[in-house]
Specification:
This protein has 289 residues and is an alpha/beta fold. The chain contains 11 helices and 9 strands. Strands 1-2-3-5-4-6-7 form a 7-stranded mixed β-sheet, with helices on both faces. Strand 8 and strand 9 form a beta hairpin. Helix 6 packs across helix 7. The longest helix has 15 residues. It is globular.
């Protein structure tokens, strides 16, 4: 589901969240901030956190934090958007998030932050495509780019902003961070809004919920179109590709033509890509046919 579509889930909570802030005193932002270079109304700040919270490994990480002030006097509760991946750059989506979440923010500041190692928060780079080589290049620091560190960074942002409580909107991997934060700091959470939930234990290694969702989503694509049995068509194509892969030619954005080999796994990759790309989603039934 595309970002704007998934935020429709948030819309139904607008009245409840707005009511929850009535009667709360205003809160002054505590970030050391300045207007962001982009003209989107956000103020930018850097929240510096230790690389290793225990202090055994030296180093710091400067988190890129962006705040969109509430239209009215802000309450001591902020709305924090936590995106997925892990590795999705939140700062580049700040404007889209502000527009989509506008109906439910009420008197809350909107906080958007790049997680450590991502985007403007000390982005990690790796010259090798092999994860083991990238891990060795990081050295001991690799132990501190975890969900638990993301949770502690979120708490550091709350403290730096002077907020008493947070409303956490998480999507995909962001739901795992939100749930872990709520488990550790439940008294500092006003509400959770979760989409494409990943439990604290991690995703199902067999992806059973994904396959169940595919069975629901494919017929919906053909509700108003000529394709009658998209699920059967996908199943037939998968069976064919399990017997023998197919070769095809694709054209890149630069105009080059490349040879590719299609397998049953390729079909799954296309279906998953359609989750966030409406063009791929719309063209999938016809392409499969």
């Amino acid at each position: 589901m595309a970002l704007v579509r998934r935020l429709q889930i948030v819309g139904c909570l607008a009245a409840g969240l707005a009511a929850a802030v009535l009667g709360l005193p205003a809160a002054a932002p505590a970030f050391d901030e300045a207007p962001c270079p982009s003209a989107d109304g956000f103020s930018c700040s850097r929240v510096v956190v230790p690389l290793d919270p225990a202090g055994a490994v030296p180093g710091q990480v400067a988190l890129d934090v962006r705040r969109l002030p509430a239209a009215d006097a802000p309450t001591p509760t902020a709305l924090v958007a936590i995106l997925g991946g892990p590795g999705q750059v939140a700062s580049s989506e700040a404007g889209s998030l502000a527009a989509a979440l506008a109906p439910v923010r009420g008197a809350r500041d909107l906080i958007v932050a790049d997680p450590r190692g991502v985007g403007r928060s000390g982005a990690l780079s790796c010259r090798s495509r092999r994860p083991d080589r990238g891990a060795r290049a990081l050295g001991p620091a690799r132990a501190f780019y975890t969900t638990e560190n993301d949770v502690q960074d979120l708490e550091a942002i709350r403290r730096a902003g002077g907020y008493k409580r947070l409303v956490l909107y998480g999507t995909s991997y962001g739901t795992k961070v939100a749930l872990r934060y709520a488990a550790a700091y439940g008294d500092r959470v006003e509400a959770l809004v979760l989409d494409s939930t990943v439990t604290p234990e991690g995703p199902d290694p067999l992806a059973l919920s994904t396959f169940a969702a595919i069975r629901r989503a494919l017929p919906a694509l053909c509700a108003d179109g000529p394709c009658a049995h998209p699920t059967d068509d996908v199943a037939a194509l998968v069976r064919r590709l399990e017997r023998r892969s197919m070769r095809a030619r694709v054209r890149t954005a630069s105009g080059r033509r490349l040879g590719v080999r299609l397998t049953a796994d390729s079909v799954l990759s296309v279906l998953l890509a359609g989750d966030v790309n409406p063009v791929i989603r719309a063209e999938t039934p016809g392409a499969v046919r």
